[in-house]
Design brief:
By secondary structure, the protein is an alpha+beta fold. The protein has helices at about 175-185, 215-220, 240-250, 255-265, 275-280, 305-320, 350-355, 360-365, 390-395, 425-445, 465-475, and strands at about 10, 30-35, 50, 60-65, 70-75, 90, 100-105, 120-125, 125-130, 140-145, 150-160, 165-170, 195-200, 205-210, 225-230, 265-270, 325-335, 340-345, 375-380, 400-410, 410, 420, 495, 495-500. The longest helix has 21 residues, at about 425-445. It starts with 9 loop residues before the first strand and ends in a 55-residue tail after the last strand. Its cofactor is Zn(2+).
């Protein structure tokens, strides 16, 4: 680490002056060229130009340390300086084989999955699929030059001069991507799918409510109808929750036989993005006005928290509907310090209710390799009092099971494996599909649905003919997003064991033509592959890849 005084020396890419001080971290940088001290004139090739002024972007400041090292400062959440985790920015004007060290210096949490081998994600214009930077090139440590705060440093080597490179904390999933995806479903005119506007955010973005059920069930008055409510993305930086939610929706509207029988017997109400303003702005945890919306469920304000106000009113109204049996409220999140998928539930005075709520997590564990019962817990911590799980657990009918579903930002470790497997976008969506199929097992156990064979012994959903056909025709893609980055002959090994092809994408690098980097908001295809700390990929001479600095070995 260079010991010179950290001071920003920035010049705008359009030659305008930049007035940027240490305290001004209220906005994202916009096309800032970082040049050496006392340098004048236009930026040269290799004077990196940083940008985070796009949807879901986050980078508040860059300090020049040397030609090979830069300190990066995360912009805090709007109106709330406590939260600094999410980053998402681009770098351009690079030189071929230019090696750099990026230091992210102002994380708001010291405990992190970077200690466990997690690494940032990268893609570029010629390779629009996200990849993890190898963990051997990522370091997480206390830094004396930053008041002994934790710093995450990663080494990277730029290999294509004309590419724009994008780096992110996790797989971006933007408000625009959700709107595009829901529009695709709207255009299919499915009689069992409905989308309605539940409310508008402070900045007038849509709070969508998706309803999935057979029209005959929706209109019947002969029996009480089973109801499941799912919400996601109350914390904007927890992007994996959106992939889980999309996987759930994709499965429920698919022709898969389990999806069909679920639609015929259960009404699903899904709010896929509870905090659209925070998502758009690139916040990690808060709304536009600096509120953690998952702490205001007890008394949401119609002007400060219109999304939560409308969502809570909808849930309570459905709970009071005499024609409905509300069985589940599940709020989907992502976890920054733990592995696997797992659930949080509530503690109740009634022992029968307390025991009953353990059934669904156990069923999910039997269906999903990445779900952990050992990480699942039931509590009533005072600090969680304003969460959806806690508030609604005390407000809804006693037969309703209220959970928080968490999924790791990094990896999961199936039973029998001695190493973690990094999540991909597809793996997150697979958890959503497995969540859906678990509802069938639950209702079979309640003798509400009769269906054979059981969900637990059905073919894997990502291999089933009907579901694969649906996915191939309807998966959201961007530009060249259809082209896989890695292929089947990739020999990923960890501790001498090959990874199962069902747990990770393993495809060779294929040449991909340059595409516009206007898709910073995360609208790329969901099929991809991750690097890991001990993985060594066999290279293919005529296929492009990210140049990784191996001088650290």
């Amino acid at each position: 680490m260079n010991n010179q005084t950290r001071a920003q020396n920035g010049e705008s890419a359009d030659d305008s002056d930049s007035d940027f001080t240490n305290e001004q971290l209220t906005g994202n940088i916009h096309k800032i060229a970082i040049v050496p001290p006392n340098y004048t004139g236009k930026p040269k090739k290799g004077h990196l130009i940083f940008d985070a002024c796009f949807e879901c972007g986050n980078l508040g400041r860059v300090d020049y340390i040397s030609d090979f090292e830069y300190d990066l400062f995360i912009r805090p959440d709007t109106c709330n300086a406590r939260f600094r985790i999410w980053f998402n920015f681009t770098v351009e004007n690079v030189k071929q084989e230019q090696r750099v060290v990026f230091n992210v210096v102002n994380f708001s949490k010291s405990k992190s999955l970077y200690r466990e081998g997690m690494s940032p994600l990268v893609k570029s214009t010629s390779r629009p699929k996200w990849q993890r930077i190898p963990a051997k090139n990522v370091f997480y440590y206390r830094c004396p030059e930053h008041k002994r705060n934790y710093v995450m440093s990663f080494v990277f080597c730029f290999d294509v001069e004309d590419d724009v490179y994008q780096f992110a904390y996790s797989f971006p999933y933007s408000y625009t991507k959700l709107q595009n995806y829901l529009q695709i479903l709207d255009n299919r005119s499915l009689d069992y799918y409905d989308r309605e506007l539940l409310a508008l955010s402070v900045q007038q973005r849509r709070l969508d409510l998706v309803t999935i059920c057979d029209p005959e069930l929706k209109n019947t008055s002969e029996k009480k109808r089973k109801l499941v409510i799912i919400t996601a993305r109350v914390h904007p930086g927890e992007t994996p929750s959106s992939y889980v939610c999309q996987g759930l929706i994709e499965f429920l509207v698919s022709p898969h036989p389990i999806a069909k029988v679920l639609r015929e017997n259960v009404i699903f109400k899904i709010i896929p993005m509870l905090n659209p303003d925070g998502v758009f702005l690139g916040n990690y945890r808060c709304s536009l006005m600096g509120f953690d919306l998952n702490r205001v469920w007890q008394d949401p304000s119609p002007w400060a928290h219109p999304e939560l106000f409308a969502a809570k009113a909808q849930v309570l109204s459905l709970d009071k509907d005499p024609s409905m049996d509300l069985d589940f409220f599940i709020d989907i999140h992502a976890h920054s310090t733990m592995m696997n998928g797992f659930m949080y539930g509530n503690i109740y005075e009634d022992p029968n209710r307390y025991e009953r709520q353990a059934i669904f997590p156990k069923l999910l564990c039997s269906n999903a390799d990445d779900f952990s019962m050992s990480n699942t817990s039931f509590n009533r911590d005072a600090v969680k009092a304003g969460t959806g799980r806690r508030t609604l657990g005390g407000s809804l009918d006693e037969n309703c099971n209220c959970y928080t579903l968490e999924v790791s930002f990094f990896s999961y470790q199936p039973a029998g494996f001695n190493h973690p497997i990094p999540y991909t976008e597809e793996e997150y969506m697979k958890l959503g599909r497995n969540l859906a199929r678990t509802f069938l097992d639950f209702y079979k156990l309640q003798n509400y649905i009769v269906f054979n064979p059981s969900a637990a012994i059905m073919p894997k959903l990502n291999n089933s003919a009907g579901f694969s056909s649906y996915r191939s025709n309807n998966t959201l893609t961007n530009g060249n997003g259809n082209n896989p980055l890695l292929g089947n002959n990739l020999n990923n090994s960890t501790n001498g064991k090959k990874r199962s092809p069902t747990t990770m994408s393993q495809q060779p690098l294929k040449p991909i033509s340059s595409s516009s980097m206007s898709n910073h908001n995360g609208n790329s295809s969901s099929s991809m592959s991750n690097g890991s700390q001990n993985s060594n990929a066999a290279t293919n001479e005529n296929k492009p890849k990210f140049f990784i600095d191996n001088s650290l070995e």
